[in-house]
Amino acid sequence: MSAQGYAHPVTHDEHEHHHKETFITKYIFSQDHKMISKQYLITGLFMGIIGIAMSLIFRLQLAWPDKQFTIYEVLLGKWGEDGIMDPSVYLALVTIHGTIMVFFVLTAGLSGTFSNLLIPLQIGARDMASGFLNMVSYWLFFISSIIMVMSLFVEAGPASAGWTVYPPLSALPQAIPGSGAGMTLWLVSMTIFIASSLLGSLNYIVTVLNLRTKGMSMTRLPLTIWAFFVTAIIGVISFPVLLSAGLMMVMDRSFGTSFFLSDIYIAGEVLHNQGGSPVLFEHLFWFLGHPEVYIVLLPALGITSEVIATNARKPIFGYRAMVASILAIAFLSTIVWGHHMFISGMNPFLGSVFTFTTLLIAIPSAVKAFNYITTLWKGNLQLNPAMLFSIGLVSTFITGGLTGIILGDSALDINVHDTYFVVAHFHLVMGISALYGLFAGVYHWFPKMFEGRMMNKNLGYVHFWITAIGAYGVFFPMHFIGMAGLPRRYYTNSAFPYFDDLADVNVVISIFAFITGAAQLVFLYNFIHSMFYGKKGPKNPWNSNTLEWTAEVKHIHGNWDGPIPEVHRWAYDYSKLNKDESDYVIPGQDFVPQHIPLQDNEEEMNH
User: Fold this and answer.
1) Which of 142, 143, 139 is nearest to 43 (CA)?
2) What pTM does this model have?
3) Would strands 265-266 and 269-270 be described as parallel, antiparallel, or unpaired?
4) With a cut of 70, which residues of the chain have pLDDT below it?
5) 210: Cβ–Cβ under 8 A, 6 or more apart, which residues?
6) 30 Cβ contact list (under 8 Å, min separation 6)
7) What pLDDT is recorded for position 11?
8) Can you tell me the distance from the alpha carbon of 476 to that of 400, in angstroms, rounded to the nearest whole number?
9) What is the rounded distance in angstroms from the CA atom of residue 429 to the CA atom of residue 402?
10) pLDDT for 530-540, tens place per residue?
11) In Å, how far are 159, 161, 170, 351 from 95, measured between CA atoms?
């Protein structure tokens, strides 16, 4: 059923009459995509606070491994007795930090928030294809978040096999303390999370394909929608593979199978497991794990496309090339997973194949980077916080991507595999870039989410500059200690005299980490304060062309109080001149919203 196929426009009065909402139905079990997007965002931010706090705790340990800190006793309990961190809890902190940031913040928090908010509003739909499944998707995400947090309080400790949960640490409950109940809760949480992700992704795909308003062809979709749409497709293809790996892991742990185990000895005891292979798990995990990089990145890049075009007051450069690059990235992301496994005993010829496909994915990524730079070139730049974070994303996407050339080459990767070089690379290209996209989206669409209220611009500038300087201060030096051979996931390197000269670098990294963490408190204050006390802005505060700014400022379930706007043009008619080039198409106005029909003196842009 198409969005324009409603029997008659649903008016605000009719909605109020037929759907009198209670507090429960409006704020908790809501089926309105705008409220669900806020639920995703606030849950994601809460999980982000936990994830960042964990990183600061283990950065304290890495910088000053021989010192005692009372805060360990307060936060870690029996694992921080006498102010000394237990080595086993260090690995647990790294594991849960990675899991929370990759899945719960950058996948659900970013994609769940903005896919829900923008897909119906930007394609001209009253809501998602299924409001009920949308609600179920959020609540499954919320339940999985609760279970993941609960695993922190298990007596033997949370999962400690790294965020990639490689066997045998993850497959043998008796291997280490974190292999027990904490690992079981990790598997349960991720299973529910995958169910949530699949429900959400299917909803997004069906909504984009079936509910576009009249005139909204696929080539008129904003790049945000293309990014969310393709991200959902990648999720539907790759997440079930991780689910299958998780189910086999549960069977190995609890039912005596040997999918991932073979010839195992524990404390001199020979276990019965034969015939399994931990490398099989690596294949299954990374078949999701590498597309996951783009499940995280593509929504951020889509947000950046919209924010840069709006604030450069220029059409996005190379719209069709941008769409093609999104599709190429989606395809190539599913055939590069083996570059995570170059030292697993892989056949050298197969390694060369994965090297080729990995380097190939640099082409569509470079297309996006060059097109952003070209859009910015000679634009009338409006350097608000959303624009700064978008430009910051382009910066980290390029700098992080360049180190990917080294890691994607099977010969070069061997030297830096499992060192801090890898940590620096993926944090810049995926973690920081996606976080910048999240922040850009929050600053840009905050008025749409919270009924016209604006975030404080000056606090936004403080947030950006401290975060940008701090992020490079954290991850730039990591490349050098990685090239020097410093291995990751060691809770202290003081046992190795070879690394003594790198100790001061770890101190510098940790200081930058604490400064960057403090900057996020500025953002949280700005976010929470602006929700209630932010100044009200105009209906279309950024003079943007997309349909969401034509919807009512006051949220109604149905988005438009009357007929849905009809689309007559693409989303990027900025600074467009009339045929005589004597003035803008709309005199004195450098933007033309999508629902404005073509003027007598205008031709539709051939993009």
Assistant:
1) 142
2) 0.94
3) antiparallel
4) 1-19, 606-607
5) 1, 2, 129
6) 36, 39, 135
7) 40
8) 10
9) 9
10) 999 999 999 99
11) 7, 7, 11, 27
Closest C-alpha among 372, 369, 308, 383 to residue 544:
308
196-208 b/e with 16+ CB inside 10 Å = b?
bbbbbbbbbbebb
- SS3 label, residue 158: strand
Q: What is the pLDDT of residue 13?
A: 40
Give the residue among 223, 198, 218, 200 at the shortest CA–CA distance from 208: 218
Concatenating the DSSP letter of every residue in 435-501 gives: HHHHHHHHHHHHHHHTTTB---HHHHHHHHHHHHHHHHHHHHHHHHHHHTTPBTT-S--TT-GGGGG
Rounded-to-integer distance, Cα 218 and Cα 558, Å: 22
β-strand partners of 248: none
Number of Cβ within a 10 Å radius of residue 177: 21
User: Cβ(602)–Cβ(556) under 8 Å?
Assistant: no
Cα distance between residue 103 and residue 99, in whole Å: 6
In this structure, which long-range contacts are made by residues 75-83, counting pairs with CB atoms below 8 Å and at least 24 apart in sequence? 79/157
Q: Say if residue 168 is preceded by a cis peptide, omega within 30 of 0.
A: yes
Find out whether 182 and 92 touch, Cβ atoms under 8 Å. Answer: yes
Tell me the two tokens of residue 507. 């101190």
**Which residues make beta-bridge pairs with 158?**
182
Neighbouring C-alpha atoms within 13 Å toward the C-beta of 349: 0
Structure tokens at 490: 């060691």
Amino acid at 403: T
Exposed (0-12), middle (13-18) or buried (19+): which is 105, by Cβ within 10 Å?
buried
At 128-158, the pLDDT tens digits run: 999 999 999 999 999 999 999 999 999 999 9
Q: CA 383 to CA 392: how far, in whole Å?
A: 12
Q: What is the pLDDT of residue 605?
A: 73
Please tell me the predicted confidence (pLDDT) of residue 7.
Answer: 33
What integer pLDDT is reported at residue 19 of this predicted model? 55
Contacts of 492 (CB under 8 A, 6+ apart): 61, 62, 65, 66, 87
Rounded CA separation 439/436 (Å): 5
Tokens standing for residue 208: 């984009």
